[in-house]
Amino acid sequence: MNTGSDEPGEVAMADDEAENERALGSRAPEFVKARRALHVSWQVGVFVVGLAVVGAGVVMLPLPGPGWLVIFGGMAIWATEFVWAQLVLRWTKRKVTEATQRALDPKVRRRNIILTTIGLVIVAVLVGVYVWKFGFEMPWNIKE
Q1: At residue 2, does pLDDT exceed 60?
Q2: Per-residue DSSP letters for 10-63?
Q3: What average pLDDT does this structure show over 49-60?
Q4: b/e string for 83-100 if b means 16 or more Cβ within 10 A?
Q5: Which of 72, 71, 79 is nearest to 23 (CA)?
């Protein structure tokens, strides 16, 4: 695949991007796609299973459990059959990759460490003032 560039690295990068970008559309077996009624039934089944997984992930958000991971798993199930879910997953992967690269930047990491340290110092001072003034009493037990 030639992209019209004279740089050999750009051609290799374009080939890698082409391999990473799978074709959009249904990944159902060919015998399922060949029959319209079977294919619609297949899509309904994939949608229901994906909906159950996404629903479980939403329930896990406030409860213990890997909520976001399960939600993305449900989206991946939907992406086996629906183009809109494939596009959402591509966008999400791109944004996560960009955020990871930004977070690994030494300047950003240093800023985040400094802000976290300042936040922890403020919380420690507030807790210290509370303990100094009220002792180890819970706030709802203070009668003043």
Answers
A1: no
A2: HHHHHHHHHHHSPPPS----HHHHTSHHHHHHHHHHHHHHHHHHHHHHHHHTTS
A3: 93
A4: eebbeeeeeeeeeeeeee
A5: 79
Best CA proximity match to 26, nearest among 47, 45, 51, 43: 43
Collapsed DSSP state (helix, strand, coil) of residue 82: coil
Instruction: Give which of 124, 104, 121 is closest to 112, Cα–Cα.
Output: 104
Tens digits of residue pLDDT in 89-143 = 899 889 989 988 888 888 888 998 999 999 999 999 999 999 988 888 777 776 7
Nearest in space to 87 (alpha carbons), one of 99, 77, 79? 79
Nearest-angstrom CA–CA distance, 112 and 97: 18
